[in-house]
Amino acid sequence: MSVLVVGSMALDSVETPFGKRDDILGGSATYFSLSARFFARVSLVAVVGQDFPRKHIKLLENHDINIEGLKVETGKTFRWGGKYGYDLNVANTIYTHLNVFETFSPEIPSSYKDIKYVFLANIDPDLQQKVLSQMRNPKLVACDTMNYWIENKRKPLLDLIKSVDILFLNDGEARELTGELNLLKAISWIFKRGPKMVVIKKGEHGSIFATKDFTFCIPAFPIEDIYDPTGAGDTFAGGFLGCLNKYNKITEGTLRKAVAYGTIMASFAVESFGPERLLKLTNKEVESRYRDFQRLTRF
Amino acid sequence: MSVLVVGSMALDSVETPFGKRDDILGGSATYFSLSARFFARVSLVAVVGQDFPRKHIKLLENHDINIEGLKVETGKTFRWGGKYGYDLNVANTIYTHLNVFETFSPEIPSSYKDIKYVFLANIDPDLQQKVLSQMRNPKLVACDTMNYWIENKRKPLLDLIKSVDILFLNDGEARELTGELNLLKAISWIFKRGPKMVVIKKGEHGSIFATKDFTFCIPAFPIEDIYDPTGAGDTFAGGFLGCLNKYNKITEGTLRKAVAYGTIMASFAVESFGPERLLKLTNKEVESRYRDFQRLTRF
């Protein structure tokens, strides 16, 4: 049992009202993996440059993440610089240096091709499609995207989601993609384009998960000290897909659990800069916060 | 068993992206009453002018609201004009004509003075204090306020909340009152100033309820067609206090239920202009949506 993630690995420089870090480990595949590993074996596909610190690669290995699909290419690693103001829901990108990511063309190792749970993190929809075409018979395909692809690669994105089971979006992206302000209407719009399930992430306001059969609304787990929201969405996706992979059963019950685990994994991610908190996290803390979360929302 | 509300009755002119209405029945005491009446007998204190349509007064009576405390004064009724853009969380005030409300000095009929559940809707904190001083031995006092009083009557407001059990605020007001961006920290700040409970309303993003013993986070009940958010907060408060009054017991269980009922009452209020939907609402619809809401949030 394994979950495949194809996405970015990066060196991030992040500034929030609570501090600043330079060239720390980042990227969608990183956050996803460090979250999903609590529930399932993770197999990663990504690319880094020769400048990527060996210790980060070691660290993934030490956390039992399968890095057979990680390529080290000539050139520099993808770098992102971002700044958050007091509204931590809004990231202001200072720079994006694609570097080796610019020519990234994901190749799926043959040992990965039978993996049943697939997460296509936020990359060019053409590349997401290319990944999908290499998989033999996935059981559940989820994908994330962003405003850039919605604006510049709308047609490939709409083609891709025809074959995707679960679409992950934040609220702004859902509105932009569908032209619907109301999120329930945005979800109906998406259901007509392929996906059977939609996750709309609203940052500190929680998320809405919907299938054609039921809708599930969940608040965020409230945190007193949010240091850095970078990676929260991918961490959510990691908890979500990892949890489904663990149960290996797509039912209303496992889907609700998966959303709740995704939510609490994201709440850990934001408690420190980069993936620091995820790296120190224990299973016991995860389970304890899950129980707290049930109490926090029950009526 | 009865709930007292002291607040405004108004004639509102409202424009939203979905339509426009002029001089419709509005005001905090109106919304509160039309919501709380599903759970408890409501006794209202408010003032209107001679221009206030008789039919509105009849309507309150027909809905079994005790209007002994409603005064009809010489002059015009309080009028509010507001406009909402696509972000229905933000009301833009076009005008506020206080009219008879300017000299409003609430007097509590003696038949009201033993009422145990008291809601001080958003009016001048000096007047809220004046109401409170007339009550004999209330069991639970809740109050609402707004940015205007936070900015212009901070001292009287802080004096007032020393004797208030539950403070209702929206997220922006909580941040403004406390100087804390994080809502959990804002709640801790408030606990040090008197209230034992806090409700932070986040509009379409639900609310956070906290006592010193537990925190409860709840999403909004999602609605496809929101026509007019005016009055949602007072409708929430009406469902909340009405429910507590019905159970006449302040426990963790009844408080959670009260927050959930407040939330669904607010979801009805926004489904039409003014209080139209609340006027047509049945107990059966309330109970049915409550069950839907449990399913919507359970994991």
From TrEMBL, chains A, B:
Q: What is this protein called?
A: Sugar kinase
The GO terms describing molecular function are: kinase activity
UniProt source species: Candidatus Aquitaenariimonas noxiae
Q: Which UniProt keywords apply?
A: Kinase, Transferase
Q: Which PROSITE patterns match?
A: PFKB_KINASES_2
Q: Which GO terms describe its cellular component?
A: cytosol
What Pfam families does this protein's entry cite?
PfkB
Domain Carbohydrate kinase PfkB positions: 35-275
